[in-house]
Amino acid sequence: MWFSGFNIFAQIGTNGTNDVLTNGVQTAQSIADGWDQQWIDLLQTNTNTNLYGALTNLGIFFAVGTLLFFMAQWLKDVLDNEYSRPISALIWPFVVVLLLANPGNGTVLSNLTLGLRDFVNTINQQVVEAADVNQTYQQALNMSIAEDVVGGLLRPCQSLIGQQQLDCFTKAKEKVDVLLGQYRGSYGGQPWIDRLDLKVNEILAFNGNSAELAFNSLLGSTTQTIIKNILVSLQSAFQNLIEVTMLLIAALGPLAVGGYLLPVAGKPIFAWLTGLLAIGIAKISFNIVAAVSAAVIVNGPAQNLDADPDLMWFMILLGILAPIMSLGLAAAGGFAVFNAISNTAVWVQERV
Predict the structure, then answer these.
(1) What stretches of 168-288 adopt beta strand conformation (E)?
(2) Quick one: which of 137, 162, 174, 180 could link to 294 by a disulfide (CB 3.0–4.6 Å)?
(3) Angstrom distances, CA of residue 304 to CA of 95, 298, 301
(4) What is the spatial distance between Cα 336 and Cα 339, in angstroms, rounded to a whole number?
(5) Contact partners, residue 40, CB within 8 Å, separation at least 6
């Protein structure tokens, strides 16, 4: 996962500009590590006593109940002289028992679930690395909010006059220089960083009403800053929602396996597996959209020193439109996967 929605605006007033970039990366890494540990704690650690263990016991209860229906159908097939199918069908109760056997350090099902999640994350990481070689996502996000960050540093000086304003500008400029130095250290001498530096110098060169006009025209408003902060938080919330949804579906795996022996066409385990894969598709789709749109910004307006683009569209795309599109693609992809799994299962049953 990329760094997601770090509260850069709050850090200006509390931790200082030195932590603006590093805290964002560390926060994202800690979020990812936190979810990894949560998966292990739920699916592998003391599964005899934790939530997954309780759901496993409930899945076993379902398996015992559905086994009665299975045996009734099996005996009916035997009485109808359909011996080949009943004999091959006896393998499925043993598969269910194997998947739900709980030794205390994770069932076979929980280990397979973790393996599937690791596979999805590996594919996602490969997509991120391939599409974000030059940190285009981070750079585009910082480019989108950089003026608001600088505005938050300079705006308190706007209401002052005389020497007080000059001293305020001097201190704010020191913080701005630190921030721009961090940008240059992360992304090199990008034109958008130089353009922001020129804007700051232009503001500091004005006095009185001219300074006020420069603030309003070059650094935007507090309302715009708040909106961008909300949009950044929304895309962070979506990524965390993806993680918790995948974990919730994984936790329901024992119930899906327990209901496998029901004599119905649509097996719960297929829907469960499809749900995991669909959420993985949503996660990968969001990262692809974010990387491609970020590349458009970094390789376009960011390289033009004279360009002054309004990148609010990028924030809206990340916070609202990309999550909606990702979920739509996941729904379509999940439906296709479900059909493929169901058709494969029917094919296997006809030949086993």
Answers:
(1) none
(2) 137
(3) 61, 10, 5
(4) 5
(5) 114
Q: Phi, psi at residue 92, to the nearest 5°?
A: -70, -40
User: Alpha-carbon distance 256 to 249, whole Å?
Assistant: 10
Pairwise CA distance, residues 246 & 231, whole Å: 23
Q: Which of 272, 279, 218 is nearest to 245 (CA)?
A: 279
Q: Between the CA of residue 290 and those of 2, 101, 125, 251, 271, what are the distances in Å?
A: 10, 41, 14, 29, 28
Mean pLDDT of 150-175: 80
Neighbours of 141 (CB within 10 A): 28
Question: What distance in Å separates the CA atoms of residue 271 and residue 260, rounded to the nearest whole number?
Answer: 11
Q: Residue 41's pLDDT is what?
A: 84
Tokens of 299: 């390789």
The span from the first CA to the last CA of the chain, in angstroms, equals 42
Mean pLDDT of the chain: 75
Please write the tens of the pLDDT for every residue from 183-202.
Answer: 888 888 888 888 888 878 87
Residue pLDDT, tens place only, 232-278: 888 888 988 988 999 999 989 888 888 877 766 667 888 888 888 88
Eight-class DSSP state of 300: T
Exposure on the CB side of residue 192, measured as CA atoms within 13 A: 22
Type of residue numbered 209? N
Q: Which of 233, 251, 232 is nearest to 311 (CA)?
A: 232
Question: Could you write out the DSSP letters of every residue in 261-273?
Answer: TSSSSS-HHHHHH
- Between CA 307 and CA 90 the distance in angstroms is 70
Which tokens sit at 262? Answer: 């029901």
Q: Which residues contact 79 (CB under 8 A, 6 or more apart)?
A: none
pLDDT of residue 226: 80
Amino acid at 255: L
Single-letter residue type at 101 = A
Angle, in degrees to the nearest 10, between helices 222-251 and 268-298: 150
Amino acid symbol at 285: S
Asked whether the beta carbons of 69 and 263 are under 8 A apart, the reply is yes
Tokens 């305020």 correspond to what residue?
Answer: 168
Please state, in angstroms and rounded to a whole number, the distance separating the CA atoms of residues 134 and 131.
9
